[in-house]
Amino acid sequence: QDEEKWDFVLVSNIHEVGSEKEIKRKKFLDELSKKGFTIKKIEDNKLFYGVRAPEQIFREYQRLLRNPDSRLQNRDVHHDIPVTTRIRIVNFILQNTMTPDLEKLHDLMKKKVFEATFPLHEEEEVREFLKEKWVCRRDIFCQQRIEKIRCYFGEKVALYFAWLGWYTYLLGIAALGGLVVFVAGITVFNSSQVSKEICEASNTIMCPLCDQKCPFWLLSDTCTYARVTHMIDNEGTVLFAMFMAIWATVFLELWKRKRATVVTDWDLYRWDEEEEELAMELINNLQHEPRQYQHSYFRSTIMLLLVLVMIAVLIGIAHALVIYRVIATALFTQSNFEFLREQANTVAVMTGAVLHYITIVIMTKVQSETCWALLPSPEKPRTFSQRENSFTVKIFTFQFFTNFSSLIYIAFFLGRINGHPGNYVRIAGKWRLEECHPSGCITDLFIQMAIIMLLKQTISNVMEYLIPWIAHKLRKKTQRPKKRSMMLGEEEEAEDPCKRQWLSNYQLNEVNIFSLFDEFLEMVIQYSFTTIFVAAFPLAPLLAFCNNLFEIRLDAIKMMQLHRRMVPRKANDIGIWLQVLEAVGILAVIGNGLVIAITSDFIPVQVYKYTYSPCLMENNTSVDCSTGYINHSLSVFRIQDFEPYTKPGLALMGLRCRYRDYRNADDYSYTVQFWHIFAARLAFLILFEHVALCVKLIAAWYIPDVPQSVKNKFLDRKHSNLHEKLRWVMPQKV
Fold first, then answer.
1. Which of 211, 119, 184 is closest to 419 using CA atoms?
2. How far apart, in Å, are the Cα atoms of 382 and each of 58, 156, 472?
């Protein structure tokens, strides 16, 4: 049975005898044979080569690294080394074996000499346990078996699922807080003084929302919109934004503690990736010279310029989305359908959000292909982790701009750079930029985030599972085992037991060295949505929590049943993703502070209450201090001052209309109130961010990264090692 265990399978097309590809394949297999590898060939529609490394290689590995896998992990009965370590070493040797033509396996695969290479999914006890207890199709709350995942997929995958489980667990607390804030907003749906004033403003005539066919309109027409806005934009939102800034810090600090405990149990806390890579290079080639660290300012500058070009393209796409919304609003207001005319702005926001989601999907593919093309990075990283870190930073930067550029415009620029009646800012001198609703712009941001998150967590997740499932079914149909024709009277030859296993593994979907990267990226982008603009969308943590319950199981199903086995990677942390998450935490403080200070009407309302409200004029406690706020926040415009080429509809009464801004009625310059509010916004932003960052620093200091139990374990280990050395040196005194 042991003789039929194979470390890796190489797959090749059947080439003509004597062809260049057949010669190259033979040279590579000969090099493996010289290193003591056992090779088995099975012919079907393709050529399958099973390879098994000699035991000498693994003994050298253990000797060089003092057997770092001495504890834990699943052990093959016949080998004193974990299966995951065995696969990792064999993969390294395969990838670094060079033919006499100075070609490695990667080069041969590019030239179609080999089509695929993969370790096998073994029908072993650990896999069956994971299929039964981890995939859990019927129970999304079933516990993850991190130790078993480690035994089958290696430390890198195990740490991903440990992190994802921990993130989802703590996300439950944030989801509960967001739900409470949202429900509290619903309870005050009809009680807001601001929304009451909008609903009762049946005599307030507003300026047209477009130039040609848009009529003047009554402020009371937007009563429902105003109530929805207050449901999101209230005092509870400010507290929740502060809570999420603290939550993000506590989550990361607690994760650092959990990670320290987990990797200490694995004996990997002080593991050195560089030492392991050097050891495997020496095992592969004793004459190997280590590649030196390199840094080139010229190469780094080239890479920086390429990244900046891509960011400029993404910002251009964000501008295109803005132009779409402006033109769509103008077209909808001229529609023959009454609903489209009345809800032109809202429909433009919603269709713009769907279009934004489509650009996210398309640009994700484009960016991935671009970064794959740049994978032989001009920066020349020395180790795999350095290469992965460089790849991660580039892709995350591109994804961040793709996902958030449109949201940043809505949050901080929409309705603030559009000018005013009589002097609008226009695109191509024709289309006016959008305006905010009199009750604020935060509802536009809420709609945009809700649509993008819902689409990403429904359509994207369904496609993420369906595409590999359909691809697997199609591969099984097209790659059935070849049946040998039988001659009359000929006995049927017993089928090689390896053939079915190798073919079934080959029919699974391909994985690459960055397959786990895609899962991490998806979750970190979700984490960004959950924290950065949570002040505008308090339901974001709840949506993320529900999504992750399914995400864990879908990832498990894909890895166990739809994808080939990943090459196990050893790791003692989640790599540069931790620094990315910490950067997102800081951006969350800045983003939420800006949303409350700029997008929300929280600051203007507070300034009105404490500076201009009726509460300051009379000692009447029964008067709501925000009474009169709407009238105070609307400026007056004389209809005769419209630009000559605009044709607004007839006014319902009078010669004036109102618009959202703080401007004088005579020369349309900013009023004193505008500068009061501007100063208050700036003061709040500085105060909020300093308080939030101080709280984050205190939380980071208060929660140690490494638990005392881990420190004490290392202390006891050092003491026992020193005691043991002393016992050998001075046996009579000990």
1. 211
2. 24, 19, 36
Q: How many angstroms separate the CA atoms of 41 and 48, rounded? A: 6
- What single letter denotes the amino acid at residue 132? E
Distance between CA atoms of residues 253 and 705, nearest Å: 6
What order of strands is seen across the sheet that includes strand 38-43?
Answer: 38-43, 47-52, 8-12, 116-118
Secondary structure (DSSP) of 48-85: EEEEE--HHHHHHHHHHTT-TT-SSS-B-TT-SSBHHH
Cα 713 from chain centre: 35
pLDDT at 340: 78
Q: Quick check: helix, strand or coil at residue 325?
A: helix
Measure the CA–CA gap between 130 and 136, rounded to whole angstroms.
Answer: 9
The whole-angstrom separation of Cα 159 and Cα 66 is 24
Q: Which of 475, 463, 569 is nearest to 516 (CA)?
A: 569
| pLDDT at site 74 | 45
DSSP, res 585:
H
Amino acid identity for residue 452 in this structure: I
The answer to whether 445 and 537 are in contact (CB under 8 A) is yes
Q: What residue ranges of the chain have pLDDT lower than 70?
A: 1-4, 66-80, 136-140, 212, 371-382, 437-440, 479-495, 617-621, 645-654, 730-734
Question: 165-174 b/e with 16+ CB inside 10 Å = b?
Answer: bbbbebbeeb
In this prediction, residue 485 carries a pLDDT of 46
- Evaluate whether 585 touches 696 at the Cβ level (below 8 Å): yes
- DSSP-assigned letters across all residues of 684-724: HHHHHHHHHHHHHHHHHHHS-SS-HHHHHHHHHHHHHHHHH
From CA 619, how far away is CA 78, in angstroms rounded? 89
| Closest to 215 measured CA to CA, from 342, 369, 68 | 342
Residue recorded with tokens 């690294």: 65
Distance CA 711, CA 260 (A): 10
pTM score, two decimals?
A: 0.86
Which H or E element spans position 424? strand 423-424
Provide DSSP, 494-532.
Answer: PPPHHHHHHHHHHTSBP--TTHHHHHHHHHHHHHHHHHH
Q: How far apart are CA 580 and CA 573, in angstroms?
A: 13
Amino acid found at 515 = S
**716-725: Cβ within 8 A, 24+ apart:** none
Note the pLDDT of residue 677.
Answer: 93
Residue ranges of the alpha helices (H) in 533-597?
540-557, 577-594
Is residue 287 within 8 A of residue 388, CB to CB? The reply is no
Q: Give the pLDDT score at 87.
A: 93
Sign of CA dihedral 70, 71, 74, 75: positive
DSSP conformational letter for 13: -
SS3 of 475, please? helix
Query: Residue 191 to residues 91, 233, 234, 588, 616: CA-CA distances in angstroms?
Result: 66, 13, 12, 30, 22
392's CB contacts (< 8 A; 6+ apart) are: 517, 520, 521, 575, 576, 577, 580
Q: Select from 545, 671, 538 the least CA-distant residue to 608.
A: 671
Q: What is the DSSP string of 123-170?
A: --HHHHHHHHHTS-TT-TTPPP-HHHHHHHH-HHHHHHHHHHHHHHHH
pLDDT given for residue 208 in this prediction = 83
| Cβ-Cβ contacts under 8 Å for 597 (sequence gap 6 or more) | 603, 681, 682, 684, 685, 688
| Cα-Cα-Cα-Cα dihedral sign, residues 279, 285, 286, 292 | negative
Look at residue 427 and give its three-state secondary structure: strand
DSSP state of 561: I
